[in-house]
Amino acid sequence: MSIRPDVVLRNKSLKQRQAVSKQFENPERLAQVKRLMKIIHANPSNSKHALGHRWSDERRRQHSERMKGRFTGSNHPNWKGGHSLRHTKSLQYKAWRNAVFERDNFTCQMPDCGIRGGSLNAHHVKSWDKCSELRYEVLNGATLCKPCHYKIKGKEEKFEENLILRKP
Question: What are phi and psi of 31, to 5 degrees?
């Protein structure tokens, strides 16, 4: 097997090409690279020739079994501790959201904003996770435009006084 410095050097700067060329002049380094290339190409899955190879049904079944449950639930890298947005599809949530919008006259409740209509969010003044008894209380809701809602995400306690519980 031969090492082709021209292939290795194709996307390198001049200094990088000169440095890599010197490595290939060193017989010890050349022997080391050849050993590494043999190891890489000894495994068919590492070979270029494996690209586009179709797995047998048995191999696919084995791989599927091995991967089951690997990226589900708490094993998934995007796991947020069981927090789900399924509640937003419930009729109870939709009714709460509409009641909050109507009470606030479809106007953003942040003091500096006051945008009416457009893309609005119903925000829980007291956290959905921490105050489950207030989840569907209209007094615990505030209408916010999307930019304002994004601005206070994660800093709800700081803005709680601005969005105090209001009576309809």
Answer: -65, -40
- Consecutive 10-residue runs of the chain (168 residues): their mean pLDDT? 53 65 74 74 57 79 86 78 70 91 90 85 84 85 90 79 60
For residue 4, what pLDDT is reported?
A: 56
On whether the pTM is more than 0.70, the answer is no
What type of residue sits at position 99?
Answer: A
Q: How far is CA 19 from CA 3, 37, 115, 120, in A?
A: 16, 20, 61, 58
Which among 35, 11, 1, 8 has a CA at the least distance from the CA of 22?
8
Q: Distance (Å, rounded) from C-alpha 159 to C-alpha 140?
A: 13
Contact (CB, 8 A) for 123 and 97: no
- Determine the Cα–Cα distance for residues 107 and 84; give it in Å rounded to an integer: 27
Task: Identify the residue whose tokens are 């003044």.
Answer: 125
Gyration radius from the chain CA atoms: 30
Helix, strand, coil shares of the chain, percent, nearest 5, are 50, 5, 40
Q: Which helix (H) or strand (E) holds 28?
A: helix 27-42
